[in-house]
Design a protein that fits this description.
With 214 residues, the protein is of the alpha+beta class. Helix content is 47%, strand content 10%. The protein has a 4-stranded mixed beta sheet, with helices on both faces. The chain is globular and about 50 Å long.
Length: 214
């Protein structure tokens, strides 16, 4: 049985779609998943990037492409009233749900994703909605406690140390598979596709000299 780590932030529509698609994409395979909530903005800051929704033409395309992907996959989706929004309350709630040392289960993650992406376009950060979500999830620890805040920072730092640069990313056997469209590639690896056993994986990533912008 393979151990997968699903690194995600519920602010990402691609993370939501990949979360919903994962069971179908890996159907028939033997695996278990640890769901690890991390701060996408922390990844962007570290790697010197802007999020897709922060660049206007890219935001327009992103949400059109997301809407198409959801349509093609048969996954309901409704963009929240404000996007991007601050996901810290949701991330801390997820880390607070299980006892210390454990990761949130799939049902807990699903409730948070649906809070954002299946609420008819409601504001994901609206205080009354957040309060209702917290009541439904009944976290084992205080989401605003120092231990939970530190855990979120530590998990985000851990992801960065592994080379995670975006969400969703699935980690298995030290390999990283980024994005919704990488699920097919991940499934091929788990099925034992011989391509991954040869030199192609490492050779494709070999650095080639090129132009460096100032």
């Amino acid at each position: 049985m393979k151990h997968l780590v699903f690194w995600f932030d519920p602010v990402s529509p691609y993370a939501y779609l990949a979360f919903e698609r994962l069971p179908q994409a890996l159907e028939g395979l033997s695996y278990r998943v640890d769901y690890q909530p991390i701060l996408f903005a922390g990844l962007l800051k570290q790697w010197g990037q802007k999020g897709p929704a922060e660049i206007e033409p890219k935001r327009v395309w992103t949400f059109r492409q997301v809407a198409w992907a959801a349509h093609r996959l048969g996954i309901p989706i409704a963009t929240p009233a404000q996007h991007p929004f601050n996901p810290l309350a949701l991330l801390r709630l997820l880390h607070a749900c299980p006892p210390e040392g454990l990761t949130p289960n799939r049902w807990q993650c699903e409730r948070v994703f649906h809070h954002v992406w299946r609420s008819g376009g409601a504001d994901a950060g609206e205080p009354q909605r957040l309060s209702a979500l917290r009541e439904a999830l009944a976290p084992a620890r205080d989401p605003e406690g120092d231990a939970v805040k530190k855990q979120l920072k530590d998990r985000t730092a851990e992801a960065l140390a592994k080379g995670v640069f975006g969400v969703p990313t699935v980690e298995v056997d030290g390999r990283l598979f980024w994005g919704l469209d990488a699920l097919e590639m991940l499934a091929a690896y788990l099925k034992g596709d011989a391509w991954f056993d040869g030199p192609a994986w490492d050779e494709a990533a070999r650095a080639r000299p090129g132009v460096v912008r100032g």
